[in-house]
């Protein structure tokens, strides 16, 4: 078994499969952020709500900023460290550099490119009815606005080609004969005693 790198053509991930991966990631985030929300609720109760409910950045409170940072860290750290997220991994997708091709080894993404893609790039793609994401549909390489800003693209991960090993068929086994019909070994016949020959010095019987 070996990887088929050189002969494999790059396959770009389309809009619908990326949307499905995004929905899986958001389901995972929803479950994970429940724990964070519970911790923040306890802190808010202890501080009587004054610490987390105060507006810090425009109309965003400290609680909103913490939840956004947790969500952004999920996408940034997983994409930078593994090239994919849990949702993308489920559909065998990877985020790679725009210079990447199937004929070369995959290189690690730049950290700041990933941060730019998953924060500012996603924000700009989401405004105006998500037109930045809809750019994936007509694009030849299926790149959205956030992909273009960070010089990335989403492709299907390298597949593994399995070579079948031919197995030589064994000759058919003939059914054996029943035990009753099998030839029984011949019983050994008792050996007849041989007459002893008289020694040279002895006289023959009946003679002096």
What does this structure look like?
The chain has helices spanning 15-46, 62-82, 86-90, 111-134, 145-150, and strands at 2-3, 55-57, 60-61, 93-97, 152-156, 160-161. The protein is mainly alpha-helical and 208 residues long. It has one domain (2-157). The strands form three sheets. The chain has a two-stranded antiparallel sheet. Strands 2-3 form a two-stranded antiparallel sheet. α1 (15-46) packs across α2 and α2 (62-82) crosses α4 (111-134). The model is unreliable at 1-7 and 200-208 (pLDDT under 50).
How is the topology of this model organized?
Layout: E1 2-3, H1 15-46, E2 55-57, E3 60-61, H2 62-82, H3 86-90, E4 93-97, H4 111-134, H5 145-150, E5 152-156, E6 160-161
Antiparallel strand pairs: 1-6, 2-3, 4-5
The shape, in one word, is extended
Strand content: 5-15%
Classify the secondary structure makeup into a structural class.
Answer: mainly alpha
Overall number of strands: 6
State the oligomer.
single chain
Weakly predicted, low-confidence segments: 1-7, 200-208
Major sheet: size, sense and barrel closure?
A: 2 strands, antiparallel
Major sheet strand order: 1-6
Element order, helices and strands?
Answer: EHEEHHEHHEE
Count the domains: 1
DSSP helical segment count: 5
Radius of gyration: 41 Å
Cα distance spanning the termini: 100 Å
